[in-house]
Design a protein that fits this description.
mainly beta
Length: 78
């Protein structure tokens, strides 16, 4: 999960303290948070969308950032 909110009204501070969070699922509906150090997932910008894609190397997560560059994270098997 990821997201910050930069587009607030002038007298509201922007919500920009999030860095994203990788959640490891067990296939039974339970999730455990994984630290950025372990997961390598860091999405600290104004995230507008996430997408899971298939690549020649396996699966990857694309992170769309409003008015900024696209990020890509390869998913490693553990």
């Amino acid at each position: 999960m990821a997201g910050n909110l930069y587009d607030a009204e002038p007298n509201t501070a922007r919500a920009d303290a999030g860095n994203g969070l990788w959640l490891r699922g067990d296939g039974k509906g339970h999730f455990t948070p994984v630290s950025p150090v372990e997961s390598g997932f860091l999405a600290p910008l104004n995230v507008s969308g996430l997408a899971l894609i298939n690549t020649s190397k396996g699966k990857a997560v694309l992170v769309a950032n409003t008015a900024d560059s696209l990020q890509s994270f390869n998913i490693r098997k553990r």
